[in-house]
Design goal:
With 329 residues, this protein is α/β, with parallel strands linked by helices. It has helices at 2-32, 50-66, 81-88, 103-110, 146-155, 170-182, 194-202, 213-221, 268-283, 285-293, 303-324; strands spanning 39-43, 70-74, 96-100, 122-131, 133-138, 161-164, 187-190, 208-212, 225-230, 256-263, 297-298. Strand 6, helix 6 and strand 7 form a beta-alpha-beta unit. The longest helix has 31 residues, at 2-32.
């Protein structure tokens, strides 16, 4: 019996060694031939939104050099969780890529449970762009500056009204960051998205809101809204509006970030190729100008820089959400 067991053990070890050797050979070979078929980009939102638009622009830009078709697959639901889970559970071979935004780092603190581990289930590829946000008031508002808004709030505690684009959204969290940084009280008026919140602002139903640059730009240029401050520096599209950092509120830094991730375990050469092509694309002068004109701020980070950024954002939003006692809608 012991001899049979020993023979079985040797056979098992030989098989395991052969499998391991095959795997080591297959990994680099697979990466070298990548991509050998079309690749899908999972966008966890419906078509037409900022994340979807950016994904389609990027796919069209790098498809020729990539050597295969890149197609967008919209997987909606669960505050981006459905689509993001699809990426986490995909075969780690680079044929399923995830286009994630700020919800990727907000959801770990906002939602009680996630069907994946944001830190462990993915390999970051590159932080590609961010869309800045603008704190704005109706054009008829008596508030000409951010200082006016803060002074009014402190003189009238609990009277200032803020239109939220949805609990846990970047515009909502920017408003919450502002409340915490300025040490003011305000009444948050919930709306189901950025467009309804903007309608509430323009109608004078609320005192202020925070909106993405592309959403509010035309209203400011048409004289229907007044921008008071921009997150993460000034925007070239509305250069006269000061940055939050200039006004003493550098911690009000919420933006709509966009980057690529793949399932954990994806071979490093594949991650490196995806990072190289996507980061180079957003830095190419003509494409960079196209992105800027659409309200995207090109970045193109390394994989490691994106990993560090994700970790920092998760920790930051955990503190903001806890301090504001923010719950999901």
């Amino acid at each position: 019996m012991s001899k049979a067991i020993d023979m079985h053990r040797r056979a098992w070890l030989a098989g395991a060694a052969a499998f391991s050797g095959t795997t080591l050979i297959a990994g680099p070979a697979m990466a070298q031939n990548y991509p050998a078929r079309p690749v899908r980009i999972i966008v966890p939102y419906p078509p037409g939104g900022g994340t979807d638009v950016f994904a389609r622009l990027l796919a069209a830009k790098i498809e020729a050099e990539f050597g295969q078709a890149l197609y967008v697959d919209n997987r909606t639901g669960g505050a981006s969780v459905v689509g993001t889970r699809t990426v986490a559970e995909a075969t780690p071979d680079g044929y399923t890529i995830g286009m994630v935004d700020s919800a990727f780092t907000i959801n770990p603190s906002l939602l009680k449970e996630l069907p994946y581990d944001t830190r462990k289930s993915f390999t970051p590829v590159s932080l590609l762009s961010r869309t800045q946000l603008i704190l704005c008031v109706p054009e008829a508002s008596p508030f000409k500056t951010t200082q006016d808004l803060v002074a009014h709030a402190k003189a009238n505690p609990g009277k200032l009204t803020f239109a939220s684009a949805g609990n846990g959204s970047p515009p909502h969290l920017a408003g919450e960051q502002f409340r915490q940084a300025a040490a003011i009280e305000m009444v948050t008026v919930p709306y189901r998205g950025g467009a309804p919140a903007l309608t509430g602002l323009l109608s004078g139903a609320v005192d202020f809101t925070v909106s993405t640059v592309p959403t509010i730009q035309s209203q400011i240029q048409a004289g229907k809204a007044r921008g008071l401050a921009v997150t993460r520096g000034r925007t070239p599209l509305l250069p006269d509006i000061p940055g939050m950092d200039e006004l003493g509120y550098a911690s009000v830094d919420a933006t709509s970030d966009m980057g690529l991730v793949v399932a954990a375990g994806t071979p490093a050469p594949i991650v490196e190729k995806l990072q190289r092509l996507s980061a180079a694309a957003v830095k190419e002068p003509a494409f960079r100008d196209t992105l800027i004109q659409r309200g995207f701020q090109p970045i193109g980070s390394t994989s490691e820089e994106f990993r560090v950024y994700i970790e920092g954002e998760i920790e930051k939003w955990a503190k903001v959400i806890a301090a504001g006692n923010i719950k999901p809608d």
